[in-house]
What we know:
Elements: E1 2-5, E2 8-11, H1 43-71, E3 73-76, E4 80-83, H2 88-92, E5 99-103, E6 106-107, H3 111-120, E7 125-132, E8 135-142, E9 144-149, E10 155-160, E11 163-165, E12 169-172, H4 176-203, H5 208-211, H6 215-228, H7 230-248, H8 256-269, H9 275-303, H10 306-316
Antiparallel strand pairs: 1-2, 3-12, 4-11, 5-6, 5-7, 7-8, 9-10
Helix pairs in contact: 1-4, 1-7, 1-8, 4-7, 6-7
Amino acid sequence: LNYKRGDTEYTLCLFAFGGYVKLAGDNREECKGEPHEFLGRKPLDRAKVIAAGPALNYLLAFICLWLVNLVGYPNLTTRVGEVMAGYPAESAGILKDDLIVSIEGKNVQYWNQLQEIIYKNKSSSVKLELLRNNEKVELTAKLTQETVKNMLGNKQRISLLGIRPKGETVIVKHNVFMGFVLAGKNLWNLTTLTLSAFGKMLTGGLSFKDNVTGPLGMFYVTNEAVKIGFNAVLHLMAVLSASLCIFNLLPFPILDGGHLFFLGLEKLRGRHLSPKVEEKIGQVGFGFIISLAVFVFLNDLVKFGLWQKAVDVVNKFR
Length: 318
């Protein structure tokens, strides 16, 4: 189905696999130098058009995170599920099912709050206030320090008490304004984490094959998110949208970041790159994207056990 309104033609395909926008005059053979044509505009105007895609991805990520804060998300309470043998919590007298309500005079409701305070505490001990059988218990616990690796593979020295959560959760919701503020913070943290992960993968600090996934992987992850609930799906959409935005802005041919890079060169040089150079760059970029897609697809087959399942099926018919 298609119809034309003004100078724009809208088309709905039978198989709606994604979207595509064909800009008027976006190649030299078609461009007549008209003001409405893509290549007939100044580099800055073209840069705005190219940047609009990643910007909308980023906006979608923000909206999804905002909705997560409004709808609510499960958060672990501070109820103790396990006291680890040989750690300070055991000798301090902390028991399973104790509910920690404050640490060093700071009220805590959620496990991540408690964890952050303990991890960053550099003193030798902490004062805790617990609820045990609805009665308040105050005690002092020593801390032990260990060197661990975070999700980016960086070593860090943290303090430990030696407790694990019970798994008890509560749904945390925020009002419209606070949800908006938290969405901004969440998106900033997600952005810095994603950029750090990209940097680590490029420098070999993180395994590339263990930390990338394609359509197969996204299917599995989405399936798991659906099982958890709507808020998990929203959060996954935010992560994917933000990651797509950042990936697209990498200064590599074919990607939006590559187009922006060459527009910057054009602005500095005062003229377009030659058609032959543009063609070569496009071929390199296309080859890279295809190679990456094939690698990610095969990697997903192995990672999610599909390759082995296929081999087993083939072996059955031999």
